[in-house]
Amino acid sequence: MPHETFTGDAIAPLLRQAREALGPDAQVVRVNRLGNRYTLVVSTEAEAAPAPAPAPASAPDFRATLDSRLRGIPEEPLPARPRGRPLVVALVGPTGAGKTTTAAKLAMSRHAFGGREIGLIGLDTYRVGAVEQLALWAEVARVPMEVAWGPNDTRAALRRFRSCDAVLVDTPGRGPGNAADLDAVRQTLAALRPDETHLVLPVGRIWRVVRQTLRDYRAFGITHLLASKVDECADDWGVFELALAEGLPMRWIADGQAVPDALRPAADRLAGAALRRPRAVTEVA
């Protein structure tokens, strides 16, 4: 399918340029970033999902072991919309985890909510430019967005999104030393009563820090793990082991800056990691 590409220093003018050139129906297929330069790949037609790649060949005994290990990672399909309201999915995590970009990837990716009507709620009113960044991604993804400054705002935003199938909530990042700020985020999040709370965990950091971060965010009632910055992880087999050790379901991982391409089903990536480390699979089986 033919695409048009637009390159520049900022997304907003590129988006205007694309829609002026291709019309209001132009759809952003993906966004790539290299340094301070952005490239928008745009089409006026819906992009068909590529055919799945064939599974790599492997010995029967290794395949059986791998299947057994993969079943050890709790994974589940996206649940149906609850009756009379949208599915609420909150993203929590430390500063710099990539929550806002991950929210954009989820809103646009066929691997996530493909075909469903999505709304975005931004709670990150602390970080300079965070609301503007999320608003820009909402415009790119063509989804509605609300900003919530506290519990009352979150409830009002949910009422306005009652016709959506799912609502993604972007929360501010805070370190373990900011107890008061973390408590304020927890209270605002509690008002949303999310169906799922995904910890966006940057696994490219030192593993001791990664595990401590996971422990710190248990108080948020996390239900899922979403590994981010997997492309910065020297050995993504560790993500596989972390999922097994913590017993948290993983539905998606993020492994780069491209939107939405750098969001993938967790099971696919973890299976690939295992296939690259057959000895490790049999050692821990």
Q: What are the main properties of this structure?
A:
globular, disordered C terminus, 285 residues, Rossmann fold, 6-stranded parallel β-sheet, alpha/beta, 3-stranded antiparallel β-sheet
Structure description:
The chain has two domains: 4-43; 60-284, P-loop containing nucleotide triphosphate hydrolases (Rossmann fold). Helices cover 38% and strands 20% of the residues. The protein is built from ten helices and eleven strands. The protein has helices at 11-22, 60-71, 99-108, 130-141, 151-160, 179-192, 207-216, 237-246, 266-276, 278-284; strands spanning 4-8, 27-34, 37-43, 87-92, 118-122, 145-147, 166-170, 196-202, 224-228, 252-254, 263-265. β5, α4 and β6 (145-147) form a beta-alpha-beta unit. α3 runs parallel beside α4 and α5 runs parallel beside α6. The radius of gyration is 19 Å and the shape is globular. The relative contact order is 0.16.
Break the fold down into its secondary structure elements and pairings.
Layout: E1 4-8, H1 11-22, E2 27-34, E3 37-43, H2 60-71, E4 87-92, H3 99-108, E5 118-122, H4 130-141, E6 145-147, H5 151-160, E7 166-170, H6 179-192, E8 196-202, H7 207-216, E9 224-228, H8 237-246, E10 252-254, E11 263-265, H9 266-276, H10 278-284
Parallel strand pairs: 4-7, 4-8, 5-6, 5-7, 8-9
Antiparallel strand pairs: 1-3, 2-3, 10-11
Helix pairs in contact: 3-4, 5-6
CATH architectural name of the largest domain? 3-Layer(aba) Sandwich
Work out the helicity level. Answer: 25-40%
Radius of gyration: 19 Å
Determine and state the CATH class of the largest domain.
Alpha Beta
* Number of helical stretches of at least 4 residues: 10
- Whole-number average pLDDT? 76
Which secondary-structure class do the elements indicate? Answer: alpha/beta
Order of adjacent strands in the largest pleated sheet:
6-5-7-4-8-9
Number of domains: 2
Residue fraction in strands? 15-25%
Number of strands: 11
- CATH homologous superfamily (4th level) name of the largest domain: P-loop containing nucleotide triphosphate hydrolases
Q: Which regions have little confidence, pLDDT < 50, spanning 5+ residues?
A: 47-74, 278-285
Query: Separation of termini?
Result: 44 Å
In sequence order, what are the helices and strands, one letter per element?
EHEEHEHEHEHEHEHEHEEHH
CATH topology of the largest domain: Rossmann fold
